[in-house]
Every structure is written in structure tokens, then in C-alpha cells.
């Protein structure tokens, strides 16, 4: 019962993050599941099964509000699904103890990527830009594969890359990525079924993750109105870094245990400074808006 409560809180926290940022449900929930000792393949399978429900609800909402570019969705779905299925089969064929540190390393690097993207990244500039299928197909394939092997990565990879292109509305990038993610979650789940079988899936865990996510969805929608997205992005990046550094230290044993505590302190300080910088930048941006003279 205690583990189910923890899983419910994990699903709640992951959806809270994802609903506020449009990404990081898989990365956040997989990081926390790995921290609690769940095998990588089972953790990733559980996350993707829960995502089938959460991404479907998200996609329907984005379609209703007109936040979807159907051309982007159609171009991402097929290669993303292929990559997700292949990644699920690849991950399931490896021993859990062997692959766990490498999955954590992948998530650890993604954490720094997310932190840097939201702290130092610039919004897309206005202008015309045509996104071709030649660009979207390899992006979907790589992001889908990374999403299955790492338990997350579809949003953190596709959203920033698409936002770096000129002339694309931010809301349509987020809406299109979230809508296409439903197909990626279904394909990854199918891959895990083929590789792991039905009997190796803990259905109460999946149901608990889903329930936690459903409860968090309306709260996340409210939070996105009061907390700037780049501040939340820095918070997500730091969370992923800290949750995965323990697995890396325990697995590779490159650093003496004496330095573990110091490393946690340093990373925590970097995270705190990043949040402070993001808040400071947001306040300065608000001040500039208030000081701009109104047209006569």
C-alpha cells in the first residue's frame, strides 16, 4: 500500500510538471521510479502505459483549443512510433542491472539539457520557416527511440528543436508534440508487451500512475498561469539531475563515497542558483514591460 501511494505521488508530480511545461512526464516519472529501485524496462513500460491515457486527454484538449499543426503531427507520428517500438524492444532485451546506469546517464544529461534550455534559451524569432518531412522524420525516429530507452525524451527533444525554428507558434509546437505523443506511447507500450509479456507488467502500478496524473491535470493547468514556464523548466532540470546522480554514483563507483555528499550539495546549489536566475530574469522582464511608454 505504501508503494502504491508513492507511485500515485510520482504520477501526480510528473503530470504536474508535464501539464505545466508540455514535456518531461516520462523523464520525471522514470527518474523517480528508478530512484525507488524499479527495473528500467518495467519502469519505462509502466510510464508509457500511463501516458496512453494522459497524452490522449492532452491531445484532445489541444485539438479543441486549436493548438495543433496537423502537418507536424502527421509527419512525427509514424517515425516516432517506429523509434519508440524499436527502443522498447532494445531496452527489454538487456539485463536490468546492466542498463540501469546507462539509462540514468541518459536522463542525467537530459536534465542538464532541460535546465540550460530554459535558463539560457531564447524564444523562436518571428519569420517564415517551412518544416519539411526530411527534417521531421529523423527527429521523430530519434526522439521516439530515446523516449522508450530513457522512459522519457519525446517532449524534451522535439519541443526545443521545433521551437528553435523561426515562424512557428509556441502553442502549436507544444500542442503538436503532445498530440503526437499519444501514438508514441501506444507504440512503446506495444513494444514492451512483445518483449516483456503481459505477466511482467504490474497493473496496479500503472493504474496508480494514471490516477495520480488525472488528479494533477487541472492543478497543472492552474499552475501554468501563475508560474513562468522557464522557471518551471529550470526546476525540472534540477530535479532530474538530482534523482539520477545517486544511481550513477552507486553504479559506476568512480567517485569515493566521501565526496558524494559534497557533490549533492554542489548540484543543489547549482539548481538553486538557476531557479534564482530564472526568477530574476522574469522580474526584469516584467519591469521592462511596465516601463514601456504607452502610445499616445
From TrEMBL:
Segments traversing the membrane: 34-60, 72-95, 101-120, 205-224, 231-249, 261-280
Protein topology in the membrane: Multi-pass membrane protein
GO cellular component: plasma membrane
First-listed, main subcellular location of the protein, grouped into a coarse class: membrane
Keywords tagged on the record: Cell membrane, Membrane, Transmembrane, Transmembrane helix
Location within or outside the cell: Cell membrane; Membrane
Protein family membership: Belongs to the 4-toluene sulfonate uptake permease (TSUP) (TC 2.A.102) family.
Protein name: Probable membrane transporter protein
Taxonomic path: Bacteria, Bacillati, Bacillota, Bacilli, Bacillales
